[in-house]
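Reviewer 2 asked us to include a model.

Predict the structure of this chain.
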Amino acid sequence: YFLMGLLILLPWIIRTSIISGYLLYPFPQLDLLRADWKIPSEMAATDAAEIKTWGRGLKNAALVNLPISEWFSGWFHTTLPTMGKCIIVLDMVCVVLFVLLLCYAFVKLPRSELFIQLDKLFVLGTVIVCYLFWQLSAPLLRYGYAYVLLVVVLTAGITKDILFRSAFVQRHTSDNLLLFFHKSFVLMLCVLTTIILAASLRYLYSVRNAPNYLWQADYGTYALQSYDINGVTFYYPESGDRVGYHLFPAIPKKTEILFRSDQLADGFYSYPLKQ
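Predicted model (structure tokens):
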């Protein structure tokens, strides 16, 4: 599984290296490649800070070191939709429940059943670590949908399996209290699933006539300026760092362009213009 993960990751690493000069961008601390097209480390650090603060709803890179106690409340109330708030609350409950499940497994389950359930708890623990990394770094909901949703569904399934379908419970089928909790848990899962499906169908119904429901919206256009180097016109934004996709080649700010050869196809790299 580890090798499969590396195989899946490899094309992304190659692409990131070609684009930025880093194995992992924006993470200048992992600077292992020698590439003249490498994005300057200070720019990579700024990009990382902007991604984090944008995800936290702050939109100010200078606030990247603001403690979670000061930004969490605003992020929760202003950036999340109603369903997103519900899922995040469930995720936090699941983190606590994961700790309780670990304790229960080690204390209550027989050794043969313990090793079976530990495999599942390891998967759940991995997903929870991913969720916590997302929550503490750049918690924009679209960045972490996989972790946010998987924590809930995996915890629900594993909880049901450990508490009500393990060999321990099978030997205590006469325990009416456990059977009551079993039925209550299944009922709760059914209700929760119904609510999520209803909310999803309601959303699909509300956007069915949206102009970009079937076709992606066009990329944005921005006010650009240009300058020529070796007969090639480069475009850069009048303000900010966005250039869109309509004019090529485009760069985030005006810099001194150096060509590898006399052809643009062989690539280029840049240094800041001297004032």
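Residues 94 and 155 are 6 Å apart (CA to CA). The first helix runs from residue 2 to 20. We have added this to the supplementary material.
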